[in-house]
């Protein structure tokens, strides 16, 4: 059988292979709670239904970045370019010496024995992506079937959506009856004031649903003002961290899929953390206590 050959998209930006060494020292036991691997495509082929073809980003390169930035552990989230074939992610877990956990993408027909095998390797959640430029969202029943299969394992559901999706699927998201982790604060429009109806709806979602956790990650995806301070994102993330200090996570998002204008420097992203978690106590919860409790307890 021939080895598949993948050619990355012509406008694809490769991840920064020489990031800045961060000046902020993350606390011992810190977790990068949102990152990915891509392939390598010659070993772990990309999905035929993918909407982008990335560069390779291997587990060895992920582990090297983890050590360079000072983190102790990773939570690897299934990349949409791999569809529901989680082989690359599971390979990370198998070679992590217990220092990685995973969030997979599965289909309703997944066998419970396969879910059990994933759990043994360190998977603790499934991801449902509603961002239409990346995937084709499915009917609610599709996701409910998956939830009933993962419920006995105690897994959580990771939701990736944009502001309009929260309004459209409020009832569905609210009545999932499992722990929920929201990627990147639901992607707020940071060109608007914090006190805007869309972000207030997201804050209400968290207030009314104590099982909801959110990642205050990816300022590079949200910002208009840009690196290194990401000043327009800071008020949004700080508001969430300060109101919900026990329900926030943070991650680099390495290797930063689908960045079209500028590839972020992972060291600068780490140095962004103290601007949104402004005290050692908040930093400890964001980077150590919360992710460790969710993924390793």
If you had to describe this structure to a student in words, what would you say it looks like?
The protein has 297 residues and is α/β, with parallel strands linked by helices. It has one domain: Alpha-Beta Barrel (TIM Barrel), CATH 3.20.20. The protein has helices at 59-69, 87-94, 112-121, 140-150, 163-168, 170-174, 197-208, 219-222, 234-243, 266-276, 280-296; strands spanning 31-35, 73-77, 100-104, 123-129, 156-160, 180-182, 212-215, 248-249. Helix 7 links the parallel strand 6 and strand 7 (212-215). The longest helix is centred in the C-terminal third of the chain and has 17 residues, at 280-296. The chain is globular and about 45 Å long. The N and C termini lie far apart (42 Å). The relative contact order is 0.16.
